[in-house]
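Progress against Task 2.4 (sequence-to-structure conversion) is shown through the following example record, which the project officer requested during the mid-term review.
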Amino acid sequence: MSKSPIRLMPNFLSALLAITACLTCGFNANAQTSTAAYPTKPIKLIAPVAAGGGLDNIARTLAERMSKSLGQTIIVENIGGGGGSIASQAVAKAAPDGYTLLVAYVGTHGTNPAVRRLPYDAIKDFSPIGMIGATPNTLVINPDLPINNLKEFVDYAKKNPAKLSYGSAGPGTLTHLGMEQFKLAANIFMVHVPYRGVGPAYTDLLAGQTQAMFPTLFAAMPYLKSNRVRALAVTGPKRNPAAPNIPTFKELGYNGFEGQQWYGIVGPANLPEPIINKLNAELNKALATPEFSEKMTSEAMNLMPMNPQQFGNYIKEDIARWTKVAKDRKIEIE
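Structure tokens generated for the chain above:
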């Protein structure tokens, strides 16, 4: 004798659906309440470099300002190594709850993704929150060279192809790709001499072992003030207030030199939109304070407040920019 299929009574089925709906509403309400109350505990802001230096200084200055306005402590944690990839991977794998953030910069979300295979996807694995600002790169030379401007530099390089070399902070860094972009645009040749950091590269430039370099304007300022290097041009859309006498590449006829050493804030992918918007608003509020603005301007940084979508587009465009340079110059680093 076959058994009849069990049929749920209409009243029982209605009750089951009602319970499910109540549970769903409860979960949603709890999530919304948690998001609305954010932050309820300290936030960890990871700086992908060792303590000390420009990026670390930016992270700590920003953490201090935002802690006050958010009413919650922001703790800066330094995780160096791998050109920022170790810190970036840690944030990419963190819970998307707004309590683990990263100071992203051109290395982690610009040049490195263009030339290396990384353990993270710079676009898919992160939620853009907002831009902090950028300092331009500047083409500097040893002042002993008989050169006073960019045109003379290009002419000299074409007449003396075996006499010029340039130092960088390492393969695939902005100091490397920026100069390769210029070599391509000006159709000149220079030997690339990579160093482990910008410090050793400066040592040899000042000693005349190399003749040129493409550092950030901020890093170049002490040497420019003491006349130990000569600046020929800066990247970016306009002259920098910290060095208004240095023309932009665009002024001198070279378009497309918009690459800069930029900094911004990102979180793990799938960060709730209300948390992203709250952090973006607090970040832009911090950038607008006179104290922060004056401090960053004195360090040759242009503040660049953006909404999350604008910052996300900026990251995509920067990766595309350096990917093209790397492809054109056949640069790929394992």
